[in-house]
Structures are given as C-alpha cells and as structure tokens.
Design goal:
The structure is a homodimer. Chain A is elongated and about 55 Å long. Chain A is built from 11 helices and no strands. In chain A, α1 crosses α2, α7 crosses α8 and α10 packs antiparallel against α11. Chain A is mainly alpha-helical. Chains A and B meet through α8, α10 and α11 of A and α8, α10 and α11 of B. Chain A binds a DNA duplex through α1, α2 and α3.
Chain lengths: 184, 184
DNA sequence: CCACGATACGGAGGGTGTCTCCGTTTAGCA
DNA sequence: TGCTAAACGGAGACACCCTCCGTATCGTGG
C-alpha cells in the first residue's frame, strides 16, 4: 500500500472512532466521516467496503484489551460470585463504550459472515475462560456455555446502552444473571 | 371517517401485519406496503403518520392478549419457578412473534414519547402482577421490579429473535434469569 | 335525483442515506 | 525526470421515509 493510502486509512479510522463514540452508529453518515477526514467518499469505500466494516475497524483497539480484563477479573481475590460480577461489569463497560456497539456485536454472535465475527470470537473465548475457571471450582451450574453467557450479558449491555441506564441499574440486572448462572 | 377511509385503514393494517410478520420491520418499505394494499403512499401516511405508528397498529391485536397470558401463567399449579418460567416463555413467544418487535419494544421501555409507549405499559403491568403474586408467596428476591424484569426478559427475547434461536436455547437462558430472580 | 362541499386519494418529488463508477491526480521506481 | 500503477474525489444511481397538492369520490341538503 502506498504511503498516502496508509496515512489516509489511519486518519479515517481515527476520525470515525471519535464520531461513532460521540454520536453512535446510526447518527454518523459516511459523508460526514469523509468530510471530517478531508477525503472523498470514494476513498472511504476503498479502505472500508461497508459502513459496518468501518465501524469494525474504528472499535478495534478497545476490543483487543478484553482478554486483559478477563485476566484481571479472574485474578481477583473474592468469591466466585464477586469475580463473576467483576467480569460482567467489565464486559458491559466494554460493550457500551461505543453507543450502539453492544447490540450490533451481540446480534452478530453465531453469524460467521458478519464483519464483527472476529470480535465475537474474542468475546466468546474470554467468556469460555471465565467459565472454565469457575467451573473448576465447582461454582457453576453444569449447562452454562460461553455463547449463552455472551448472549445474556450482551442482551443486558444492549438494553443498558440503548436506554442509557445508570450503572446501578446495570449492576442489579447483572446480579440476577450471575445468581442464575451460579445456582446449582 | 368516510366509509372508504375505514376500509382502507383496515386493509392497510392487515397487509402490513402480514408483511412485517414475514419479513421483519426493516425489510418492509412503506412503498411495498402501499403497493401491496393497492393504495398510494399518501394514503398510508394519512392513516399512520410514521412507519413506527403503522407498525404499532399492525401488531396491536396480539398485544391485547398479554394479560390473558399472565393470568394463565399465574393460575398454573406448579412451583413458583415453574409458573415464572411459563410466564417468561409466553412473554418471549409474544415478543418474537413479529420479527424485530422484541428489540423495538424493549428499547422503548421508559420512553414515554415512543409510539410503543402504550404497549410498554401493558407489558409492565403484566410483569408487575407476576411479581406481586410471587412476592406474596415469599418466592422472590426483594429488589426485583417490573421494569428490570421487562428489560431482562426483553433482552433475551431480542437476542432469540435476532439470531433465530431454537426454543431450547431460549429456555435455557430464561432458566438462568428465573433462578436469578428467585434466588433469595 | 342532483349539486356541491368536505373528505380521501395517488403519486411525483424533496431530503438524506449507502455505495459505485470513472476521469483525474499523485507516489515511487527505473 | 518520465512512466505506470495506485489512490483520489465527487457526481450520481438507487432506496428509503415522508410531504404536498391537484384530482376523485363520498354523502348530504335541497
């Protein structure tokens, strides 16, 4: 790739990240991203074939830290319930950091063709590690799997994001899910 | 209202109901509804000021049966857990009967300005009755409210609808929520 | 039965969105 | 420095929701 192309690609992704984060997916148009980045829409579409692909690139950076968050939750000293809740809250915080991301990513679970498929795999494997660790301590009900957990917590995150709920409201819903998952 | 207007209004709502049910909200355009109903788009918009208002009218009928479903769940003979699960499954079945409805309605919880506000109130009061009844038997944790329950189960319904999950997958997620809500 | 005013109808077109196509410009190598 | 492959920009195709207004129809009072 030519040097100017690399520069443009990065500038576009940066600008898009800011815009999506401030305004949410639907409220940002491709024309707006192009104008803000000082390029034509053609350039936008050469680098990112669809709006969703641009979104995927824009939110890439923070997804990559998810495994660190899982490590941190597991390394905690509390009861299984406390560690599970720590993880759930981190997970919801991640998913709601960009407006509209929670629902888009949770919707893409199980859809290999989605532009978000790679992010879903990251999330699924992080949840799997949580499950494996807590199951080894005998704290989990037997029939819980990573996909189910992603969907449950993703559903909560989507609702929290959409209705712009207080952290306390999110926590009380997560407590319900955690208790349900821990129940024998 | 003139007789032809009444006929048109009903035909439009009927056609729209079928189309929305088959294809989901986003995949049905107003032009398509107008063409299928054999009217111009102007007529559509005189009867229903926005697409969401048309959707609201199209899914009106089944919403009205939600209270009957709550009665039926409460009249059951099983344990609190069994009755709660019966209600949850009926609730999810309602919300997923029209593709796209679960997320739209759950998103509208707490938004009085939404075209779905009336439907939300119906759902909230039905959930409140469930809570009151089970709380009187001492089966529920103290801090559960109807809004929280609507959001939790609505989130599950939205995920089930979006990913077209099997009933078994829905049931296992609902079991988690039910156990979490019942846990003391 | 008819004439006429109120009501309802149809569809062209405005505004905005995503995405494509292609003539023009530019980077980078020989 | 000259050439070619790569990248650029933006007009415009297409689809969507919704508005506007000239035309057609209903239904009532004479």
């Amino acid at each position: 790739m030519r040097a100017d192309a690399v520069r443009n690609r990065e500038r576009i992704a940066d600008i898009a990240r800011q815009l999506f984060r401030e305004k949410g997916y639907d409220a940002v148009s491709m024309d707006e991203v192009a104008k803000s980045a000082g390029v034509g829409v053609g350039t936008l579409y050469r680098h990112f074939p669809t709006k969703e692909a641009l979104y995927d690139a824009a939110i890439q950076a923070w997804v990559e830290t998810v495994n660190a968050a899982a490590d941190k939750a597991l390394a905690g000293e509390g009861s299984p319930r406390e560690r599970l809740l720590t993880w759930f809250e981190a997970y919801v915080e991640f998913l709601t950091r960009h407006k509209g991301a929670a629902w888009r990513i949770t919707s893409a679970l199980g859809d290999e063709g989605s532009p978000f498929a790679a992010k879903c795999r990251t999330y699924l494997s992080a949840n799997q590690r949580i499950i494996d660790t807590l199951a080894a301590e005998g704290a989990l009900r037997a029939d819980v799997d990573a996909m189910q957990l992603c969907r449950l917590v993703g559903g909560v995150a989507a609702v929290v994001d959409n209705s712009e709920l207080e952290p306390a409201a999110a926590s009380s819903m997560l407590a319900v899910v955690a208790d349900g998952v821990l129940a024998g």
